[in-house]
Amino acid sequence: MLHWQSAMGADEAIENAPVDHRKPARDPASAQALPQTAAPDPPPRAVAPAALAEPGADAAVAAAGPGELDTAPDAALSQVATLEALREAVERFDGCALKRTATNLVFARGSREAPVMFIGEAPGAEEDRAGLPFVGASGRLLDRMLGFIGLDEQSVYITNILFWRPPGNRNPTDAEIAACLPFVRRHIALLQPKVIVTLGRPAMNTVLGISERITRARGRWYDYVDGQLGGPIPAMPTFHPAYLLRNPAQKREAWVDLLTLRDKLETIS
């Protein structure tokens, strides 16, 4: 039961001791007779990653109101000006519980000058060990798919919406996705790709805000819009390679999406 509760996100104790709800409640008189214990110190507030990564950020942290950097990390991340600084900020960020169970940070691979940015869901076991995204079976399939339309690691940039592997490859929680989302937005803003391709429904939902089924949304062009950008970026959802390994009949539709991507790159190059 404890393992199940932790997987569901209930990984923090609320009381100092477990409560037996089968026992009748104490009357106020007896409750007052109990010895008083000092309240535990509050947990340390997570400091915004950009504040740790950028020079002179201590003043920015001091000027921010209580909880401001926790609830509005986008503003703090605007100080991060390079991909190297963003990676350092992610490494120092303690606001996502997945960091405590993962082996390695999985940031990105590929060329920083690439015209197309692929965004998946989360690292798997092989990615966690290597510290690189899409290096397992699904990554090898993705590389072969890209090779069919003349793309390789020098012409693409690959990352995920989560930078750490969920235990047991379980589905990420909404809280875990929300913790990483500001970094994903800044990642896109710093890379400035010409085209974005999201792999799988979670990445599509998170990056593009599309709630449709992936089978209906795939292969269609949408606009990724962010105030950090000068204008919208064309974005297309498609199937995640791991899904294609489980459902090889869908490879035909994925091939059509790849041809659509190739045509788009030819028109904007």
Overall description:
- The chain is of the alpha/beta class.
- 43% of the residues lie in helices and 10% in strands.
- It has 14 helices and six strands.
- The protein has helices at 2-7, 28-33, 49-53, 57-63, 68-71, 73-77, 83-92, 125-130, 137-148, 174-191, 201-208, 214-217, 241-246, 251-268; strands at residues 109-110, 116-120, 156-160, 195-199, 222-224, 233-238.
- A hairpin with an 8-residue loop joins strand 5 (222-224) and strand 6.
- It is globular and about 70 Å long.
- Residues 27-72 have low confidence and may be disordered.
Quickly describe the structure:
By secondary structure, the protein is α/β, with parallel strands linked by helices. The chain has helices spanning 2-7, 28-33, 49-53, 57-63, 68-71, 73-77, 83-92, 125-130, 137-148, 174-191, 201-208, 214-217, 241-246, 251-268; strands at residues 109-110, 116-120, 156-160, 195-199, 222-224, 233-238.
